[in-house]
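Model it.
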Amino acid sequence: MASSPVKLEQRFFRALNSVVEPAVRHGIFSSRFLPTTLIVLESTGYVSGQARRTPLLCQNLGSHVLISTGRGKRSFWVRNLQRQPDVEYFMGGQAYAAKAQVFSENLPARRAELPLLLKPLAGGINALTARGWAFALLKKQ
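Modeled.
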């Protein structure tokens, strides 16, 4: 019996994450000094209530980190952040507590609520969310 495309996608990302996540969490391929880098997002599972770790590419914006996915609602981390915005992420081998703000098809980015560097990008973020993308802005606590 063939697996559905969604199940294959889930298995692919779980296998990839199992290799990448430990390295990034310990600072390999992750830097606090580069504008674009890898992080490990630690969120609370929306069904299990257990910690979930996901390696993600991000834009480092000082006191904020911007993460995104073209997989939108299919990305479990998006659903996790919508239900529990208090998270931790690992960058450059260090852990940071943060509060997440999710932008998705039903939750547009409001220019006034964005940090200065992202204000000009609000329209682009909203155009992508209308096409199924999701973004999260992590603010260091």
